[in-house]
Design a protein that fits this description.
By secondary structure, the protein is α+β, with helices and mostly antiparallel strands. It has three domains: 31-84, Serine Threonine Protein Phosphatase 5, Tetratricopeptide repeat, CATH 1.25.40; 101-189, no CATH class; 199-301, Serine Threonine Protein Phosphatase 5, Tetratricopeptide repeat (Alpha Horseshoe), CATH 1.25.40. Helices cover 48% and strands 17% of the residues. It has ten helices and eight strands. A four-stranded antiparallel β-sheet has the order 1-8-4-5, covered by helices on one side. A hairpin with a 5-residue loop joins strand 4 and strand 5. The longest helix has 21 residues, at 2-22. It is elongated and about 85 Å long.
């Protein structure tokens, strides 16, 4: 009986041993392979599958920069503009690539307002308001005065043009409004933001800019596309987005100029186009008969 029991035990152990030998351990998941397959789906215009594959990559590496940007582009192509910006922002935050700064209610004293008897492009009298931060202006959010009685006088619509750190105000009576300060809220590009950021961050800025443009948020589009434009100029680098819609610097300049144009900053749209293409004709961008010339140049950059 004992020999029979031993034989049974050995038989069972042998069976278990054989089962163990047949168990196949799956190879470890390589996030790089998931991302490669996701881009393959994206380039085949299967944006839903690309979204799923980028999402799978993020389930293994939540802060993978390329997967964040790829996910953003995948859902952007499915018209989920607002959500895509969240993923671009995560990518920008991961590399601490904040090339712009937002300044709220900077107080500029009246002794620093510069009177102009002939304003650029439009003529007439007005003022230059110069910001104090060492930034290149991208977009003006708000400009206002407070009177001695506490009344509020909005000048945002009178700010028709800006360059570097100077804002041109198409209004000649600022000094007569009985106030010591003008308050300016704006966004500016930081020329000291540095270099050495990855291509993925550039793709994030481009995607965020175009997502905002699709939402008709022209000011926010300028923030992202303008920051990217200045960064590419300052670093002498390209965009190199090797996936649909194959964006290059032409498209960034076109998108930036179009955003300015749509917000009626015609002078800024013209300045960008002229700086990028010195052969662009000399025109007055505030001449209504020349607006088509601006739009034709913008359209050319999108081809």
């Amino acid at each position: 009986m004992r020999n029979i029991f031993l034989a049974f035990v050995l038989l069972v152990l042998g069976i278990l041993s054989c089962k163990k030998e047949k168990i196949e351990v799956p190879p470890p998941v390589l996030v790089e392979d998931l991302i490669k397959r996701a881009w393959a789906s994206y380039d085949a215009f299967d944006f839903e599958l690309a979204e799923l594959r980028f999402d799978s990559a993020l389930s293994y590496e939540l802060d993978n920069l390329e997967a964040l940007v790829g996910f953003g582009w995948s859902i952007l192509q499915q018209n989920e503009y607002h959500q895509s910006i969240d993923y671009y922002s995560l990518a920008i935050t991961k590399e601490d690539a904040f090339w712009y700064k937002r300044i709220d209610n900077e107080a500029i004293i009246d002794t620093e307002w510069i009177y102009e008897d002939t304003l650029p492009y439009i003529g007439g009298e007005g003022y230059i308001i110069q910001i104090s931060q060492p930034l290149r202006l991208l977009y003006i959010v708000e400009i206002f005065l407070l009177s001695e009685e506490g009344g509020r006088q909005d000048l945002t619509e009178n700010a028709y043009y800006f360059v570097d750190n100077r804002i041109y105000i198409n209004r000649a009576d600022i000094d007569d409004l009985l106030t010591d300060y003008v308050y300016v809220s704006y966004v500016g590009y930081d020329p000291n933001s540095g270099a050495g950021y990855s291509n993925f961050v550039k793709w994030a800025y481009a995607g965020a800019g175009y997502a905002q443009l699709a939402e008709d948020e022209f000011g926010e589009s300028v923030v992202y596309l303008g920051s990217l434009y200045h960064y590419l100029n300052d670093t002498g680098t390209g965009l190199d987005f090797s996936h649909w819609p194959y964006l290059d610097k032409d498209n960034i300049v076109g998108g930036l100029a179009y955003s300015y144009f749509k917000d009626r900053y015609y002078g800024n749209a013209y300045d960008i186009l002229k700086a990028y293409n010195p052969d662009f004709p000399d025109i007055n961008p505030f001449d209504e008969s020349k607006l088509d010339t601006l739009l034709f140049e913008i359209q050319r950059l999108f081809k």
